[in-house]
């Protein structure tokens, strides 16, 4: 079944592992804003169970944590087209997302993927709270995601 909207925002991460769950935190906050023209999903720890979401949307905006040795709280936007375009050290679900992208390529159902990664310090943190450093960048991530949504929607109108 084809969704009504062509943009999916997918927060990835383990909500119970502190900063590793930033993607889920951002998705939950974005969903409360009820932005027209998008669907928002808490993707949890990723994997092949998300394949159907990727197949059904023209644009997928992912938000995830990464252990990339950049300063904590660094936000980057990546446009991965192949599995090896992902950062070398994403979080605990790194392999699942890379494998899923490879499967989408084989199925010829690859959407436009926009990946926001936020640099974190560790995967060892337990609990549902974000550290102060990561909590402080959440508003910036939200603004960056909303700007990208607006840009995609503007381009679609033209």
Which whole number gives the mean pLDDT? 83
The CATH superfamily name is HybD-like
Beta percentage is 15-25%
Helix-residue proportion: 25-40%
Output the CATH topology.
Answer: Rossmann fold
Question: What is the chain-wise order of helices and strands?
Answer: EHEHEEHEH
Name the structural class.
Answer: alpha/beta
Number of strands: 5
Tell me the strand order in the biggest sheet: 2-1-3-5-4
Cα(first) to Cα(last) distance is: 26 Å
Q: Rg to the nearest angstrom?
A: 15 Å
The CATH class assignment is Alpha Beta
- What number of structural domains do the residues give? 1
Write the CATH architecture name: 3-Layer(aba) Sandwich
- Counted by DSSP, the helix tally is 4
Please tell me what the overall shape is: globular
Q: What does the largest sheet look like? A: 5 strands, mixed
- Runs with pLDDT <50, length 5+? none
How would you characterize the overall build of this protein?
By secondary structure, the chain is an alpha/beta fold. It has a single domain, classed as HybD-like (Rossmann fold, 3-Layer(aba) Sandwich). The protein has four helices and five strands. A five-stranded mixed beta sheet has the order 2-1-3-5-4, with helices on one face. Helix 1 packs across helix 4. The longest helix is centred in the last third of the chain and has 26 residues. The model has no long low-confidence stretch (mean pLDDT 83).
Short description:
35% of the residues lie in helices and 21% in strands.
């Amino acid at each position: 079944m084809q969704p009504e909207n062509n943009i999916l925002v997918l927060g990835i991460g383990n909500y119970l592992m502190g900063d590793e769950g930033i993607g889920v935190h951002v998705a939950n906050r974005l969903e409360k804003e009820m932005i027209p023209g998008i669907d928002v999903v808490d993707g949890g720890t990723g994997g092949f169970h998300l394949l159907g979401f990727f197949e059904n949307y023209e644009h997928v905006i992912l938000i995830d944590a990464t252990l990339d040795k950049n300063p904590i709280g660094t936000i980057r936007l990546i446009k991965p087209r192949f599995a090896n375009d992902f950062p070398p050290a994403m979080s605990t679900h790194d392999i699942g997302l890379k494998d899923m992208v490879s499967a989408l390529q084989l199925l010829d159902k690859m959407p436009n993927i926009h990946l926001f990664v936020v640099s974190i310090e560790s995967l060892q943190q337990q609990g549902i709270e974000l550290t102060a450093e990561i909590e402080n960048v959440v508003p910036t991530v939200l603004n960056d995601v909303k700007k990208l949504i607006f840009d995609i929607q503007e381009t679609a109108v033209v």
